What we know:
Layout: H1 14-17, E1 25-29, H2 33-43, E2 48-52, H3 55-65, E3 69-73, H4 80-90, E4 98-103, H5 108-114, E5 119-122, H6 127-138
Parallel strand pairs: 1-2, 1-3, 3-4, 4-5
Amino acid sequence: MKTRTRSDVDQSPVWLALRRPDHPAVLIADADSSARSAYGDDLDNDCDVFTARDADDMVRKAADIWPHVIVIDAPSADAEGLQAIARLRQSSWTSDIRVIVVSDDASVRDAAFAHGCDAFLEKPLATPVLRAQIRSLIEPPETRSMLQPRSKVPVRPAA
């Protein structure tokens, strides 16, 4: 996997035009470099993967890259990452970025949603589950085949 660093990213919005339309930009934020690499390797075929080493780096790169989705590890309910999510939500520049929190501590779930995350996944995390969650956050509901009606039979209103 070729991990992209901040210096690799064009600082202008022109970079957005260079994205592959079928590859969403995903920012992986995790203090553990091996976890960042593992997520990046798993997602690299389907996504343009960028990494951040901590919460502050994540906020800076989110503003630079405008990823479709951020995947952030939050080891505890008082983690800096959750505060960073709140900072993303307060900025008009980054407020629409979808955020997935991953943690091996299920008690983080409520705090993550209170800080503004869009999805919570518990570790250990299977790559297909993460891919499916990313896809569900960025695809418009009308394009999701599992949500399409199976028949066109009209439903009668209750009498």
